[in-house]
Amino acid sequence: MTSLSIAAPNHRRSDPSPALRLAILVAGGTLSLMAMAAMARGALGLSPTLARAHDVPVWIHLGSVLPALPLGLYVLLVRKGDARHRMLGKLWAGLMAVAALSALALRDLNHGQFSVIHLFVPVTLIGLWRAIAAARAGRIDTHRRVMVGLYLAGLIGAGSFAFMPGRVMGTWLFG
Q1: Is residue 83 part of a domain?
Q2: How many CA atoms lie within 13 A of 154 on its CB side?
Q3: Per-residue pLDDT tens for 63-88?
Q4: Which of 64, 88, 92, 104 could join 98 via S-S bond, C-beta 3.0 to 4.6 A?
Q5: Domain range spanning residue 89?
Q6: Average pLDDT of 133-150?
Q7: Residue range 97-123, pLDDT digits in tens
């Protein structure tokens, strides 16, 4: 006699593919390490001092982006759907909203005007809204795609610009 068993729900069905997981790990890990090295060099006085590095909007922005890098990496790579995923996802979404909104105050490199990088602000805010709405509606595949896109474009893509010459993180890391 054989017994029938009901399989547990497959919580991994919404995980990114192995290749995408590797890309997320490499991109997120690399940018996280670069950010830690830049912050260490800046804190230890091993890099040039920038006046704008002491501005409150810069610290608000860095204070939301820097923890969002490893947190987002963790949330994207571990088991999904449980209470911990939802709590950490909400925290990550909050950090990203603060990062996007605080970026509006960072315009000193463009003579007080918005630059191309500021296009990430509405992209991030709209993406967060879409991802949350999709999750609440049970459209988990849409939620996953938007969140992966936000991490790669809104955090890794936009964050890469922070290491350009003349920007705070670039100056701290490369001198």
Answers
A1: yes
A2: 29
A3: 999 999 999 999 999 988 899 999 99
A4: 64
A5: 18-174
A6: 96
A7: 999 999 999 887 778 888 888 999 999
Neighbours of 34 (CB within 10 A): 20
Domain count within the chain: 1
Note whether 89 and 61 are within 8 A (CB). Answer: no
Instruction: Say if 52 falls within a structural domain.
Output: yes
Task: Enter the tokens of residue 6.
Answer: 């009901």
* DSSP result, the chain: -----PPPP-GGGGSPPHHHHHHHHHHHHHHHHHHHHHHHHHHTT-S---GGGG-HHHHHHHHHHHHHHHHHHHHHHS--SSHHHHHHHHHHHHHHHHHHHHHTT--GGGTTS--GGGGHHHHHHHHHHHHHHHHHTT-HHHHHHHHHHIIIIIIIIHHHHTTSTTSHHHHHHH-
Task: Answer yes or no: is 4 within a domain.
Answer: no
Residue 145 lies in a domain: yes
**pLDDT value for 11:** 44
